[in-house]
Amino acid sequence: MKLPWRSRVETASPEVIPPEPPGPVIDIYSSPGLEEALRGGPDDGSCKVLDLGPSVADNVEFVASFASYLQIVDAIDRDPAASNLEGGGFGRLSALQSLFDRHRRSFSLVLMWDVLNYLSIDRAERMLRSVAELCLPGARLHAIVFATDTMPAVPNRYRIIDSARLAYEPATTELRGVPDLPPAAVGKLLKGFRVEHSFVLQHGVHEYVASRKRWYVKE
Amino acid sequence: MFKKDDVEPSSAQPRPAQSTAGRTPPPRRSGGAAIIGPSIKIKGDVSGDEDLMIQGQVEGKVKLAKHNVTIGSDGHVKADVHGRTVVVEGQVEGDLRAKEQIILRHTARVEGSIAAPRVTLEDGAVFRGGIEMDAGGKEGKPVVGKRADAGQEAGADRDDRSAKGAAGEKESGKSLQA
Fold this sequence. Notes:
The complex is a heterodimer. Chain A is of the alpha/beta class. Chain A contains seven helices and eleven strands.
């Protein structure tokens, strides 16, 4: 027998709580690329770090343990409306270019996680030219690139657990197709850098560690 | 990114003004600090000799090097801010400099640079800009933490850059609840 809605509300047990929809799962993975990239940095406390991702408290705390300066660019727009790759994709090039006056050739470590997958090739090239301009010769760059068929619809947040582990924090459970970025294409994009190590991880992620070329002529 | 709608309402909303007929109302204060209320807009430099809470809009410079400056959750500052401690709950476009400590609360939205002997960035705070890790001056490197009480412990045991796990290890993962 159906009760009127008021009766149904009043007789409902207060202990019955509708289950929350399942949120994105945070996974922790080993990151041999991060470990390798950290290994090459200066040890005298002069390291300046360029993080192209968003501000994450743990990452700031970790970087503070060895660096003298951290620049957080948050170069990738996390607004799904900006995700149209045909229109250039996520990306705030102007944020990088505004650093030229003060920070040209000064960074020795670049964290570039989930950037290349979310940019058009043209915009990725322009962004990496800017990054190369900002780096010292020999600077290390750590990139994470999806090598699966699908990836989160908006870029993940990455949290440094320690020097060899990262937590992947998806902002959404929605997925989208992954642009085709084989290692050769990534190497070509990283024009001012030389890929020194790459790691294919079992969860479908490709990590690259590249070093800024000593001689790099801006095109 | 920096949308006013994203900012949570402040728990320290100033109360409506009471009747002040016949006398000058005392300045409103929050924990002893002078308040720039939500409806106030200031263009120009702000300086003084007491703590300050900004819940309104300020464009210019805020110079209170010996005092505490708080940008409340309704505060919107387009200015360089210099204080003894600087706490941000609202929005700032400008450089923050403090003699003792800078705290970005989880509601903070900051675009600019930060320099202080002690920096606390709470999870959820949105920050774009540079953090000077050499701002400790004679006292050495600054302490950077993610909680207000992290200062004592942060940095002490974080330098674990020596290798953990062999490079090339494919995966070792555990999942957390989102």
